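## retry 2 of 3
previous attempt timed out at serialization; input unchanged, resubmitting
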Amino acid sequence: MEDASARWVDDRPEVTDPVLLVGLSGWIDASGAAKAAIDAITADAESSPIVEFDDDTYIDYRARRPTMELREGLHSVLHWERILLSAGTDQTGQDVLVLHGPEPDMAWHRFTRIVGDIAVELGVRHMAHLGAYPFAVPHTRPARLSISSPSQDVLARVPFLRSTIDVPAGAAAALEREMHDRGIPSIGIWAQVPHYITSMPYPSASVALLDGTREATGLVFEAAELRAEVISQGRRLDQLVANNPEHESMLHQLEQLYDAGDDVADIDAGGPSLEYRSGDELAEEVEKFLRDQD
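## retry succeeded, writing output
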């Protein structure tokens, strides 16, 4: 790696056939599900930084201002967001690299080239990035996953949903192409989050991303606390819905669509229909619920 915008934090680590996982905040991540999954991964892997990217090169601090800790007038700490590459191992001892932090605001070509150079230097065998998006699905069913990849071979290996759509791309999508061009299999794993709860954490989607990562790459992470939250949050949501017959009706329609295997909710066609007004109203109740908890 020969670029002043990135530096080794310590000596170059000795890793064997590592998998590179990418979780850059700032792109599409409904409920923060991908970030929660990446945080669980870095904790389980007991990872530590090995590469630090220069924030003045990649971060626009007018858009991502540092956080100042002010305690009774005393300016004690200024927290700067930085992009880091960390190294650790999964539950089976496999080496894993995690690229995490804010999505770069600029110099994407330079950024992806450097990450590609590091991946080749460290012998990365696979790359996967995580994301989540809002969708008309019920919280009473397992979170579904969809996939993106530049490789037909990679697409054929996993049974995740496949979409046909033109959308704005994130830096992780640029990394997909970079790795593919360097002969490193790459994949994007996306979790669907119920559209009415995107304002609150949704551990079910985070766990689905961890399980999808295992299926796609073989990496195993326990994430015990995150998995325990799935049941408790599901019960809270059930209670919220049960208080309103209209919300119960909306949930039933979503369950019908999900069970029928519909990947896109058809609002105007015959058969099960979706009343988005109910979803908006339920979202407002969820937000009120969170304020009451605070």
